[in-house]
Amino acid sequence: MPYRRRSYPNINIEVFIHKVDGLSDDYKLDIQRDITIRIQDDLSDHGFENAPVTFHLTSIYNHSIFEAFSKVIQKLIPQLGTLEAMLTNLCRTCRFEKAYLFDVLSKIYIATDSAAADMAAYEICSDYIDVIIDITDVYGSWNRSDAQRQRIEGEPWNAKVEDQVACNWAESCMVLHDAGRPIMLREVDRYLALVAIMKEDSYDRMPLVNMNVEAVVQGLTEFFDITKPRGEGQARRI
Length: 238
Known about the structure:
Layout lengths: L1 H6 L5 E5 L7 H21 L7 E5 L6 H11 L5 H15 L1 E8 L4 E5 L6 H21 L6 H8 L19 E4 L5 E6 L4 E7 L7 H22 L11
Parallel strand pairs: 1-2
Antiparallel strand pairs: 3-4, 3-7, 5-6, 6-7
C-alpha cells in the first residue's frame, strides 16, 4: 500500500471487511474500528498521515456488497455532482423519497440524490429491477390491442405509447409495494435505469411526475452523449 501511495498519490484506498453478516452491530463496529486503527498506524509508520482510506462492511447475503461497490464507482465519475444535482432536483420537484441511477446488469447505482443513504430503499429498488428483468425474460415484448392502446393513451396521459417511454425499446413501469408507496422505473438507455421511490400522494400527480421524469431522462441521455468518448461505437443491446 505505501508503494501504491508513492506511485499514485491521488489513489483511493477501499477496504472491504467481508463476511460480517453473522455478527452483531456492536461487534461489527468494533472490528471496523480495530482494522481502521491498524491500517492507519501502518500507513503512518511509512510516512502517510491521514491517508484517504474508506472501509466497507460487506456480505454476499445482503445488498451491502452492491452498496459498497456503488460508493467506490461513484468516486471514479468526474461528473458525479451533475448527476446528483439532477436527481436531487427531480426528487424535490416530484416529491420522491429517493432516486437512483442504476446500472441494470450489476445492480450498482452510479448516482443518487442528496438525501441520506437508505439501505432499505436501495434493496427495494434493486429487487424491483430483478422483477422487471425476470418478467421481460419470460414474456418479452408484446403487441397491444387497439382497445388497450386507447386505454393507455387516453386520460390522464393523453399521449401515444411511443411518447410515454424513455426510448423506443423500454417502457415506464410502476408498482406499489407493501408500504403503499409507488416505485417508478424508467430506462435511460440499454444499461442504465432511473428508479425512484415515490410518496403516497405522488400517485395522484402522475401526469406531472411523468413529464418531469421524461425531462430528466432526456437530460441524462444528452449528458451521456456529451461525455461519451469520441469514436465509441454503438453499444450492443442486451
